Amino acid sequence: MMLREFQIQRIYQGSLDKGADILEGLLGVMKQHQISAGIISGIGAVSEARLAYYNSETRIYEEQVFPEPLEIVSLKGNISIKDNAAFPHLHAVLSRRDFTPFGGHLLPKTYVFAFEFEIIPFTGEPFVRGFDEATGLFLWKQ
Length: 142
Fold this sequence. Notes:
This protein is mainly beta.
């Protein structure tokens, strides 16, 4: 088990413009404010989404594009370091017009229709991701 105590510096709350890539937009905020540890949440809607599911048997991310309007029921993630840079690890639950929910690992090329978010940076030494042989994933190592 790994456990660290952090303090909250401040909370950033904002929105991204229609048509923006969610991941790129959040990365921009993180870079602008030098955020390398924290949490992210968001709600809204997208015009198109790209998600992945990690298949633990094959150790491959299975990606799927959803070229349709979708509601963001919940977007949640954390911020740590991967490959010497701040890295947002995001998951999203989306729903269709018929209220059918589904979700997965949020990928680039997920485009905003309307999106509101919170980024809560932490003070303290950020976790660093490294390859974990047991799972085939990049997990917190230190």
